[in-house]
Structures are given as C-alpha cells and as structure tokens.
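Course exercise 7: structure representation. Students receive a sequence record and must write out the corresponding structure in token form. The form below is the worked example handed out in class, using Glucan 1,6-alpha-glucosidase (543 residues). Read each field label carefully; the graders check that inputs and outputs are placed in the correct fields and that the protein name is recorded exactly as given.

STUDENT ID: A-19
EXERCISE PROTEIN: Glucan 1,6-alpha-glucosidase
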Amino acid sequence: NVNSKWWQTAVIYQVYPRSFQDSDGDGIGDLRGIINRLDYLEQLGITAIWLSPVYKSPNDDNGYDISDYRDIMDEFGTMADMDELIEQAKRRSIRIIMDLVVNHTSDEHPWFIEARKGKDNPYRDYYVWRDPVDGDVPNGLRSTFSGPAWELDEVSGQYFLHLFSRRQPDLNWENEKVRQEVWDLMNFWLDKGVGGFRMDVIDLVGKIPDREITGNGPKLHEYLQEMHRETFGKHDVLTVGETWGATPEIAKLYSDPARKELSMVFQFEHVGLDQQEGKDKWDLKPLSVGELKSVLTKWQTELGREGWNSLFWNNHDLPRIVSRWGDDQTFRKESAKMFAILLHLMKGTPYIYQGEEIGMTNYPVTDISEVQDIESINMYRERLEAGYSKEDILASINAKGRDNARTPMQWDDTPGGGFTTGEPWLHVNPNYAEINVKDNLADPDSVFHCYRKLIALRQSHPIVVWGEFELVKDVPEQVFMYLRRYEGETWLVAANFGGEAVTVALPELGASDEIIIANYDRQSANFAELALRPYEAFAVKLG
Ligand code: TEU
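STUDENT ANSWER:
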C-alpha cells in the first residue's frame, strides 16, 4: 500500500510513568525507570510509547494538571532524562508520543497565576471568566470530577470554568493568543523529535460555555485544522484525539486524511456498554455481548477510507479488562488472551496499556482511605452526601475506579513487585507474586507471549492491517466471530466471550488446520461442529 503511514501498521504501548518503574526508591516511577525497561518493550515488539504526562505538575490529577509544558515533573527526572529517553527509544525504533493536555492547565501555571491577579491582567483572557448570576454560579455546567464546573475567585468576584478539578482551569481557545501558545509548545516537542501526540479531551476545546456546549463545539474542527497547519502538518507523526462523544460520523471529521486534522481518535462507545443509560460511569449494568459485537462491528466497518480506527480495551482511566469483562480468577490467562486475540486481529491501531500484556487485574479496595484518584474521591463524597451507602459507592469504585489501572507495574515477585525498593505511592496488587513480568517472560505460554506474537503477526501479515472486516452472524450471543479478507486470503477469528463451553454450527465455513494463534491447545477447526472451551479464542486461515 503506497499511501500507508507508519502509524497504520503500528502497535502503541501506553506508559503511566508514575506506576511503571521507579529507579531511585522514592516509590514513584520515573523517566530513568522507563529507560531501563526499553529492552523489555523492544522484546514485546511495540512501535511507539504513548507517555502519559511527564511535565511539571502539582499532581492534583497525576500530571493532567500542567504547570510548565517545557519542563519535567521533579519526581520523574529532568529534561536531560527526557532527551535520553527519546534517543534511547529511537535506537530501538520506538517513537515517543507525548500526552498533550491543553484543554486546561494547572492553577499553578504562570498564565493562571497572572490571570488571577485581576480583570485587567493581560493573561485574564487565557481562561474563561464569568460574572455571577443571581449571586450564584453562571450556569449549570458540571465538572467531570463532581460538583459545579465554576469556581468563585474571591479577588475579582468572578467565576472561572473548570470542566475537571478546580485546580484545572479551562483554557479559552477562542483567544488566538492561547492557540498560539499551544502551537508553540507543540513545536517545542516536535523539534525534540517526538513521534506525535495523544490529545487529552480534545473534543472539549471548542466549548461554548454560555450555551452549555462542551463537546464538539462549532469551531472545534477549525481549530484542529489550524493546529495541523501550524504544528505537525510538516512532520510524519501520529496524532490521536481523546473524544468521548465520537460517533463514526464524528470520527471521520477528525481522521479523514483530506481534512488535515488528526490520524485517528479514541472512541469510547464500547467502554460505556456496562453503564446504565443516561447515568454516569458509576451506575453499573451487566455487559451485553451482543451489544458489544454490534458496536465494535459498526466501528470496524463504518469508517471506510475516510478514517482510521484505534483499538483498545484499557487505559489509565479504565478498569482492567480481564477483571471487567473476563474472569480474573478461574480463567484469568485464557480470558486475558481472548481479549488480546479478539482486538489485535481487528482493523486499526492497537493500544496496549501497561500491565495488560501480562494480564494484570483490578485492585479491590475496602476503604476510601486506600484510594488516591481525585475522580473516585470526589464522587465518594458527593454520593455519601446524596445518601448512597458506603458499600454501594465502594462497589462502584472497585468496578470502575481509575486506580484499578494505576497500581504499580508488577515486574517480579520481590517485595514492591520490582516496581520500587521503597514505599510505593499506590498499593501494589497483592497478586504480584503470581502475576509478573519475570514469570511471563519465562513461560512460553504466557499472556505476554500471546501479545508478542500478535504484534509480530500484525507486522508480518498485511491482512491484519488492511483486511476488510465482516462479522459472522448466526452464532450464539456469547460467541464473537469475524472474518478478515485481503487479496484473496481469508482469516477467521473466533472467541467465546463466556465461562461456559459453547458449540457453533457453520458447515458452510468447512474446516481448516491452518491455526494462526490460539489460547488453548488447538490444531484445527471444523466449523460443522465447533466446540469452544471457556474464553477460548483462536484465528485460523480458511482454505
Ligand atoms: O480524561 C477525560 C475524562 O473525561 C476522564 O476523566 C474520564 O471521563 C473518566 O476518567 C472516566 O469517567 C482525560 C484523562 O485521560 C484523565 O486521566 C484526566 O483526568 C482528564 O482528561 C483531565 O485531564
């Protein structure tokens, strides 16, 4: 494919630096720690690292509140370490994708410190200020982290907008100077040779606060086209927007190459399927596998040539997939591999979140004092006041809380799990002695080696990257089966999404012994009567 881009054949690995590898015993992961683990990532075979924020930050939201875009967080190291990380990664053909958090800054960013000084300050307009209405907040906008999105500034008597924590004031993108600042800092990082950007809540930057419009504002795409022109347009980089409200139609607006905006977006439709309609992420309902199949199929087929997909189960905001929709007890390895096989043989660019590749699980908390995440803590307070029981709230946090993904990476079976020799900033999952990198590397049948193999398959078989996707219908609901077709070749991927054995009868598909990858011992597949074991998944080439 002559027009293909490197990021279309890539596999991206997300590092959450705080929890990846501590190198100096302070209990907090750091850049030196990442450098020390590059050989591991090279062995896994990934193309690029998406690095969650490493910039200077007071850590109200673990680095998603930035006080200096051109400097490194003290706990993580120095700019010299950052330059070395980029360089050392490059030597292993791994690119570094920076997290671009420009919907808001920290309240400790010099722009906000200035803006707060008064209505006449030249930086005032960098943020969104409004007068009170009837002695109260300007309108009903709510923060994602609970409570109103408006905070009163006592000095001026005006409110400022914060769609996240009150320590994350929203930037005013309508101000041309703000956009210019953003282009400048992006160019600063592009000049360092980074491989691109993951753009935090980028769908919010076109907000119209007075009309209570937050996502997908009218000028959003104009801004992104300006960004493309002013920054990465001349560079061969990957850009991926975090867009919670995207539909396939919206995703095409971002990722149609002709529009010169982004490479792709993260779409979140599939990860909302276990939440009650019209409520928020904490209000749980069981997943319907049928719904999951239809949502993923829609995304596989509807972007066509006018867009490109991202593929993911996990990130630093989401619970661990093996605990969420798999079985992290009896069938942990089987279900972890099932998710891997199912996703990595789809069309799009796969993202692996640290620890997913060894089947790491959620961490059950029994008391709110164990929780560090601002989103969970604020929700806890809000719901206690609203009359929910502690048990209910903790059940929600255990199912969906962001700390589930943020417990330290489990490298080995020594105390601290090989993450730190000190006191870890967040509890290490007590299962580190059974689930760790060391054992995964040693066991050829491990979750890690399944991921490694899938990554290699994508890199050696164009059908994985380019093949057309077709869902196989007429199978039991818990069976997820699809075909990929490319240049006369057909692959079939089958997955049993449940803990019970199931049989499929599709005689028209014949039989084949060309198994490509499987999570159980399997030499062939006879579709006249195909028996799938609990969480069994495999791919096979059809004759
Ligand atoms: O997340 C955006 C966001 O809306 C999340 O807070 C998400 O809604 C929530 O975790 C799940 O309900 C991005 C970052 O990924 C997140 O870590 C940041 O906290 C947030 O933006 C603010 O920068």
